[in-house]
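Example record for the data management plan.
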Amino acid sequence: MEQLLAVQPQLSLLDNFHMTYDDWQGGKLVPIRVGRFLIAPPWDKIWNQAADKEIIPLIIDPGVVFGNGSHATTHNCLEALELLFQNSTPQSTLDLGTGTGLLALAAARLGCKQTLAVDTNFLATTAAQANIRSNHMQDRIVVVQGHAEDIIYFQADLVIANIHYEVMKKLISSQGFFDKKWFILSGLLRNQANDIADSLSQGSVSIIKKWNCDGVWHTFLGKIS
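Corresponding structural encoding:
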């Protein structure tokens, strides 16, 4: 900012605001349990404790991007993944709008052998790559920077899209979406969810389960025929 002001004297700084890292993240980062998943930052002492075989650990350092595990849509997506993997084992996953890579890591922990994690944000892809290394999942997950609409055509059994509504509308109208076997769609407000459900009903898909968090956030787990 100082460099910008120095070369453009017609600009002037009116105000600035400094926040703590906890404020930026919406609160202090603490371990979060969602089903069998335990999400915690790498510096938390919980990782020094004896491992519980029933717990699936996810070490997540969100950096400055979305995806610390506290959002309702993330919880619903994790629950959807657990439900799906109870009866099926997708061998490949496409995680669109991966953020910190949390959902890609969850799929890998549940047994998925190949996952492509995608985000348009360079900071997100950097954070996701670091988290994949922290969880020793480099052999199962590849992170790329790109647009979901372009990469939906990548071959995969499962597509996860916890993503903006406008992008999701394009995804579910593409042939690349219907080439998948299962989908998890999230990040939708009520009216948006109704619109997506109407669009899905026109295709050869079946909804396995819906999540509705306080009437605000909606998530779909489905199968494509």
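Summary line stored alongside the record: The beta strands are 32-34, 37-40, 56-59, 92-96, 114-119, 141-145, 158-162, 182-188, 205-213, 217-224.
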